[in-house]
Amino acid sequence: MSRQAVLMHTQQFRGTGHRFRTARLAAALDSFFDVVVLDGGPPDPPAPAPTSVDWRFLPALYRQPDRVIRPVDPSLTLAQALRRRRDAVVAAIDEVRPAALMLEFYPFARHLLELELEAAIDRMRQRDFGLVLSYVRDLPINRFEYAEGQEAQLRPYLAERLPRFDAVLCHGDPSLFDLRSLFPWLPDLDTPVVHTGYVSDPRIGPRSMRSGIVLSSGGGNDARALCEAALEAWPRVRDDVCAGQSMTIFDGSYMPPADRQWLREAVVDEDRLEVRAFSADFAEALSRASLSVSRSGYNTFTDVLAAGARAVFSPTRVNDQPQRAKIIANAGLGVIATDCGDAIAAAIRTAMSKPPPRVQVKLNGAAFAAAWLRARVAAGT
Q1: Hey, how many other C-beta atoms are within 10 angstroms of the C-beta on 194?
Q2: Contact 136, 167 (CB under 8 A)
Q3: Which end of the chain is more exposed for a tag (fewer CB within 10 A), N or C?
């Protein structure tokens, strides 16, 4: 390779957020490095990364509807898939010889992948190739993996493994949430924590003219309840606080086919309602929106902040979203609701009665991380 390389490892067990966030980081790193991404999820939807990023797929794992993680290839057992993945990761390190290895979420989560991730760290250290970094979103704990109150059980696990890392890149803003407030004993482990700012979509930004309501269903696999509530709320707000505006619902890549068909049929005869497949025009639609209605996943929250739009967030009851909703409410960055027509209508009225929020949160996390890593590699530390 003509430039030094960065090797990234990402895994989505559910939804699309991890792949999209990694793609934004990879695009920024691509300015300085040859970037190779090892992706452990199913190949669809494709990552919105530059073609110069070498995006490779490991034997795919995904959380099935029964919430059990299994190989996408039914001919493989989980143990077989994990061994093949380990071998592929180690082979990639030998080939790429990265100046930095970036492991998403590990060791805070992704413990199912310990075989391949620890093998990767071992190879980096054996060959003395470069830095080993953990990169995590603002809230790294996944409620599928840890029940409420179990974070403290991570302490011995992290105490054993974090010293093998040169730094943790937390893609959030400590003015909203400091990773060390979740793990107050992190400084005792002597592994630096670098808050980069949120990793927003660079295409999204506030426009001078705003109109319309955008409902984002994220990955789409748990969107129906939110869509049902929004459709129930729409006639109650359409002709007063939303007068003259339309609502566009963007479905998600993993929305079940039956739910996608139901949604399109539900809006056929409705006034000023439309459904679109999630695509590149989502960025422009959100940038121009008067109001966003969505879940409170990392990417959606970050993009809503970048758009500077009024916002209603209805978090799912699992993973990081309930905790992020509390942060949103405390910072005055949106109105929190539940998947209920009355609640969504009331939240829309409240949000529309206020001016768009003044966002003072760092949103250049990808560019910051790329510049930080470039400086570290150049310094040889």
Answers
A1: 17
A2: no
A3: C
Residues 6+ apart with CB under 8 A from 340: 229
Q: What is d(CA 47, CA 50) in angstroms, rounded to the nearest whole number? A: 9
Provide the percentage of residues in the chain whose pLDDT is more than 70.
96
Which distant-in-sequence residues (6+ apart) come within 8 Å of 90 by Cβ?
116, 119, 120, 123
Question: What local confidence, expressed as pLDDT, does residue 35 receive?
Answer: 98
Cα separation, 343 vs 301, in Å, equals 19
Tell me the torsion sign for CA atoms 333, 336, 341, 342. Answer: negative
Contact by Cβ (8 Å): 223, 255: yes
Contact 129, 93 (CB under 8 A): yes
- Residue (of 104, 87, 132) closest to 26 by Cα position: 104
Half-sphere exposure of 238 (CA within 13 A, CB side): 14
pTM comes to: 0.90
With tokens 């969504």, the residue in question is 344
Judged by average pLDDT, the poorest of 8-22, 131-145, 278-292 is: 131-145
